[in-house]
Amino acid sequence: MRQWEKHVRRVEPYVPGEQPREERMIKLNTNENPYPPSPRVEKALRELRADTLRLYPDPEAALLTQAVGDYYGLPREQVFVGVGSDDVLAMAFLTFFNGQEPILFPDITYSFYDVWANLFRIPYEQPPLREDFTLDPEDYYRENGGVIFPNPNAPTGLGLELSAIRDILDHNRDVVVIVDEAYVDFGAQSALPLIEEYDNLLVVQTFSKSRSLAGMRIGCAMGSPRLIRYLNDVKYSFNSYTMDAATLAAGAAAISDREYFRETVEKIVKTREWTKDELRKLGFSFGDSQANFIFATHQSCPARELYEALRREHIYVRYFNKPRIDNYLRITVGTDQEMAVLIDFLKTYLEK
User: Fold this and answer.
1) How many whole angstroms separate alpha carbon 209 and alpha carbon 206?
2) What are the percentages of helix, strand and coil residues in the chain, rounded to 5?
3) Residue 27, strand partner residues
4) What's the pLDDT tens digit per position in 270-314?
5) What is the value of pTM for the model shown?
6) Shortest CA distance to 319 belongs to which of 336, 347, 297?
7) What is the pLDDT of residues 153-189, one digit of tens each?
8) Among residues 112, 132, 225, 314, which one has the fewest Cβ atoms lying within 10 Å of its Cβ?
9) In the chain, what is the straight-line distance between the N-terminal and C-terminal CA atoms, in Å?
10) Beta bridge partners of 147
């Protein structure tokens, strides 16, 4: 080891989903929206004047925070935005999980949580999900330095009732509780109605899934004015200009188009339910996903084998080589046509 390497912060990084660059493929591995963003986004980008790009963007991101606030009926002081929900969550870890007690999050969940905890040297514990992959609120009654969980969970797709979230909050009044709602628009109950009652609740959402803007990187957090003020203090200490002008314009345009949003989400949910029915016929089992993906296992064919067979046909799904879930595939819901191709291939392959 070289002398300078003794001072390097070493972490095991998060591994993002594969991003193949093939002309003809079916990409069902990173939970992207199969439909384009609202036409208002294209209009906003066309109208963006290039000469304004010589100026720094608004550090307060007022255009976007106001648009998010208007959509959810909140003042700007209760809205925080960042470069995707990953950026927002990283800022939240850095801001709120600064105690001596371990933070809590499930053993099967979004795999960035333990990366951030290790990066920021935050102690953590992972209460195991039940055998059916549901979360037990009682596991979060213990003393801790903060709580975070997705709703619906990833990669399982299972959602929590609002009463269960309230239960967790009631037993964690003295720490910050973060509900990561990246997939909430596809069927789960949002915890947003609780933020006026619990000043320690932070709700995080993303524009990457239901609003078709994964390529723009937009995330937001909503909570009490005090929570948002603390988040902004850390953000301004890290990078004052996190949101560029084009992203601000695109985000504000996307969230303003309520009708297009509803239509797109309804199409994905309808396709998801059709896909569930077809997968059951083929011998797959899975929980009742409330996200834009299905987390499925087959009764006889190993998940890794299916993953590799699909990949050879340029159909990409997500496989996790991890304890408890190494015989499951996470399948993003694509268009009707894409899911029909997937089902047809599985029928042929499983009949061999």
Assistant:
1) 7
2) 40, 15, 45
3) 316
4) 999 999 999 999 999 999 999 999 999 999 999 999 999 999 999
5) 0.96
6) 297
7) 999 999 999 999 999 999 999 999 999 999 999 999 9
8) 132
9) 52
10) 104, 177
